[in-house]
Amino acid sequence: MSISENWMPDKSSGIPLYQQIKDYIRYKISSGDWAIGTRIPTQREFARRFDVNRSTIVTAIDELIAEGLLEGKTKGGTIVKNNTWSLLSKTPPPDWLSYVRSGTHQPNFSTVQQINRYEFEPEIIRLGTGELSPELFPKKMMDFVTDSFSKSVKSLGYEEPKGSYELRREVSAYLSTLGINASPSQILIVSGALQALHLISVGILYKGSTILTENPSYIYSINVFQSAGMKLYGIPMDEEGIQINKIIRYRRQTNAAILYAIPSFQNPAGVCMKDERRKKLLGICEDERLPIIEDDAYRELYIDKKAPIPLKSMDNKDLVLFLGSMSKSLCPGLRIGWVVGQEAVIERLADIKMQTDYGSSSLSQRAAAEWLSSGLYFDHLVRIRKELKIRRNIALDILNQYFSDIAEWKKPEGGFYIWLCLKKPLSLQKLFNNCLKKGILINPGNVYQHMSNQHIRISYSYASHEDLKHGLVVLSLAIRELYQRD
Question: What is the pTM of this model?
Answer without folding.
Answer: 0.83
